[in-house]
Amino acid sequence: MTDRQQKILLKGCRNGKPAAQKELYDRFASDMFKVCLMYSKDYDGASDLLQEGFLRVFQKIHLFKAKDHGSLGGWIRTVIVHNCVDHYRSDSWSKNKLELTDEETERAQYRNHEEDEEETIYDRDEFLKIIAQLPDGYALVLNLFYMEGYTHKEIAAKLEITEGTSKSQLFKAKKYLRNLLLENLGEDEIGRYEGFGRKVV
């Protein structure tokens, strides 16, 4: 899509034109559905998140500025992810899915578990299928940290938890993930699975 085409499309969406909204949805829905699947255990749940997310996109489309937000697709993804996080936070069970632990204990636990920020993942699609098997609380923090690139401070603010809890969930998620990788792939294949800029297992 050229800059001119994007400007025309955005103008139509900002004016509430159904044809423009449909075109925007058709262009990005497939990729955004994959994002929603990262935050939902099934297709129906992901479909609901996608529809809710695009409603937000259309409500906020007037805020998008290429010079400030970069690509349109990247901005849409951010809105979709925020919707997924808000949906999780509004879930009455969400507080039970994230284990709240003592920060002092967490600091001691993580003293020897600093993140390695040099490795890259080998097979993203296969990795995402395995992540889908994680418990909700683990998957949420893992996705935000590795897939979206949020810091523990940002995750803590979004989920209304402490930074220590975010680190604890990530550590436990990585341990759980390693066991899943062992079950699915075996010890020899685990070395292929490194995080998006940070080591996962």
What does this structure look like?
The chain is mainly α and about 200 residues long. The chain has two domains: about 5-90, RNA polymerase sigma factor, region 2, helix turn helix motif (Rna Polymerase Sigma Factor, Chain: A); about 95-190, Arc Repressor Mutant, subunit A (Orthogonal Bundle). Helices cover about 70% and strands about 0% of the residues. The chain has twelve helices and no strands. Helix 10 (about 150-160) crosses helix 11. The longest helix has 22 residues, at about 165-185. It is elongated.
From the spread of the alpha carbons, the general shape counts as: elongated
N-to-C series of helices and strands: HHHHHHHHHHHH
Question: What is the CATH superfamily label of the largest domain?
Answer: Winged helix-like DNA-binding domain superfamily/Winged helix DNA-binding domain
Give a short account of the largest sheet. Answer: none
Low-confidence stretches: 99-122
List keywords for this structure.
Arc Repressor Mutant, subunit A, Rna Polymerase Sigma Factor, Chain: A, 2 domains, 201 residues, mainly alpha, elongated
